[in-house]
Design goal:
Layout (H helix, E strand, L loop, with lengths): L1 E6 L6 H16 L5 E11 L2 E10 L4 E8 L2 H18 L1 H10 L6 E9 L17 E12 L1 H11 L3 E6 L6 E6 L5 E4 L6
Helix pairs in contact: 1-2
Length: 192
């Protein structure tokens, strides 16, 4: 497994890197889904350290966790515990999907844009209806089943996930967390 351990304006020592590698190996080793790479980024937020951990599994799923603490080791341990909790919660489903899926998840390219937020507090009409684009990036849209998409959204801690439904020839689907706590699914091509 490849590791990328870095710090944003923080020096990361060998001891911390060794601790991170051994702890991630211990957690990931308990669960199915061979990991391909892990990204751990440490940063400082006021008086607390922040650890953001992302582990990519060979099945195409991604596990993300974030932890905060006043000590850098404790921040990583919080993120690692959250990652282990997510994997434990989805262990059976990961096992089932590992058996069904013989090849990694297919990814399609797409453009992703970040639009500037309106800084006007009043209800005045905007000068133009064209939004101001402040960033343009490329993103990947996975080809998943609906169950896998919900699991991926939960593992990533995201409020919404756009995916290509592998049960259909064409069409983009969306799963999202509703305000009532349930999961919504938007399928533009419902079966007749």
């Amino acid at each position: 497994m490849r590791y990328q351990i870095s710090g944003k304006q923080i020096d990361i020592g060998e001891a911390l890197q060794t601790h991170v590698k051994s702890e991630i190996d211990t957690v990931i080793g308990k669960y199915p889904g061979r990991p391909t790479d892990a990204l751990v980024i440490f940063s400082k937020d006021a008086h607390e350290y922040v650890s953001e951990t992302v582990v990519h599994l060979s099945t195409g799923l991604t596990v993300q966790a974030r932890g905060k603490a006043t000590e850098i080791y404790a921040a990583f341990d919080v993120a690692n515990e959250r990652m282990e909790k997510q994997l434990r919660r989805y262990k059976r489903r990961l096992k089932d999907h590992h058996i069904e899926r013989t090849q990694p998840v297919e990814l399609s390219g797409a453009s992703s844009y970040i639009l500037a937020a309106s800084d006007k507090e009043d209800d005045a009409e905007p000068d133009t209806l064209q939004p101001m684009i402040i960033a343009e990036m490329e993103t990947k849209i996975p080809s998943l089943s609906v169950g896998e998409a919900v699991m991926q959204m939960e593992l990533a801690g995201a409020p919404v996930l756009v995916f290509r439904n592998e049960r259909q020839e064409t069409g983009i689907n969306i799963v999202y967390r509703r305000e009532d706590g349930n999961i919504g699914w938007i399928d533009p091509n419902p079966a007749p």
